[in-house]
Amino acid sequence: MVRERGISTSAIIGIVVVILVIAIAGAYLATRGGGAPATTTASPSTTTTAPATTTTTTTTVAPPKGTLIVAMGTDASTLDPQDATDNPSEMVNRIIYEGLVEFDQNLNIKPMLAESWDIKDNGTTYVFHLRKGVFFQDGTPFDAYAVKTNFDRVLNSTLKLQRYSLYAPIISSVEVIDNYTVAFHLKMPFGAFLNDLAHGAGLIISPTLINSGKDVKTNPVGTGPYMLQEWVKGDHITLVANPNYWNKTAAPKFEKIIIKVVADDKARENLLKTGDVDLVLRIPPVDVASLNGTGNIITRAYPTSRVIYIAMNLMNQKFQDVRVRQAFNYAVDKEAIINSILNGLGKPATSPLASSTYGYCYAGYYKYNVTLAKELLKEAGWWDRDGDGYVENANGQKLEVNLWTPQGRYVGDYQMAQAVQSYLNAIGVKVNLQVWEWTSYLNEVRKPYNQSQNKELFLMGWAPSTGEGDWVLRPLLASWMWAPAGSNYGYYNNTQVDELIQKQMVTLGQDRLNAMCQAQKIVYNDAPWIFMVEMYDTLGMKSNVKGVVYLPIEIVMLKYAYSG
Predict the structure, then answer these.
(1) How far apart, in Å, are the Cα atoms of 243 and each of 70, 95, 100, 149, 535?
(2) pLDDT digits 0-9 by tens, 53-101
């Protein structure tokens, strides 16, 4: 065969790619005016410096090979990390993007795009020293301007991004010191700030993408080891290895990661059994033990920071007596629910915070006690006056409540709601159970109190993506976070708790932990929820899948995975 002389197709493609990368990077540099402006930091006070780590290396990296196929129950909703509120989205985003800092498997903070940082001015200034030689997947250089562009975006109230409320109360401004030094000026000392940066909303988007006007949700560009190739909504997301990833010691090991959406738990499990997928999220608890060691399958159960609770609408007259709320707690056998529905994979909730969450303290335990539950109801004016098995008040009105639940959002959610219905019926409370589709459910529970007359009891779950108690107490229990402004869907209001939440936001060390603990104990005694269970999460995978890191905030880190 005669080979023609000339430029090959692959060479032409290579030249075009280089030209595009240079053009994109040049356009970005032009938008920021070339060099950094001369600025100075505020007068330094005591400085705390995180240890610097060096991860770049000139060692030859083996090329990625093969495909990792993962099945999860719910599709991502957005690949814009600053607008994401769901774990499936965050899990995918953490493969594509990286933040200044990152959690390790124990939720300790470790450097990522920042090599180190200083804490100054009594905890109101954080100065980050950034890695050099890092590029976004579109060729844009990572630098201090990229960081500022990202946080200016999320702090822009007109954009109405979902994670505005995470950062806006804390960050006053972001200042570029030089190309690789950036300062965050806070409105007050805030002990959870590094955890907030390790949150999925702290992942850094290419400023070129932000400035382009394109929809970040479907066009993600980060600095991470994998890039989006295809997203067929409701079916699968395909990610491909980033050939220019900066961290050679953690370079992508697979050519592709394909994340399939398979809603049914059993269907996902069967795909693992047949070998059609390599890793499955959320194995049914009843199958975890029996599936482990079957063929080449291993299973894992991990404690998480998620607490399942049943909130009460405290604007409803039925729930304004604390004795009624406490009675509901004593009426429910959490241990039986854990054993029968979750196959032992969970533990009773003893605080609004899970025990793996930073700042947790034991607040109490409403141990199953039907007699005490009935006594509390009677003290509150409710007992069976006509002998029909249901309690009534002095006016003859029965204590009848609506209990709402999703089905399939959390492991065993509907079954837990059924159990609560039965337990409350046993103390004379008539319970009407209603199942909701998840999106409609969220829309309904997020309504303001004057539009939520039918909302009475409703099952929810919360896992703070910061790994930190502030992001439980503040969004769920502060009075200024009543829905729709925040996630205080039951309209809980306690002035002392508000003061303690504000105190833990601006104090550090043991004083902060003491304030958080005191708030937890008051909330637990107030019983605005039926405190249910701390959840476990379950995975199943082929035995040759290695390097998967599980974070207790219910995030599976796939970017480190390899076959071995």
Answers:
(1) 22, 14, 21, 25, 38
(2) 444 445 578 899 999 999 998 899 999 999 998 889 999 999 999 999 9
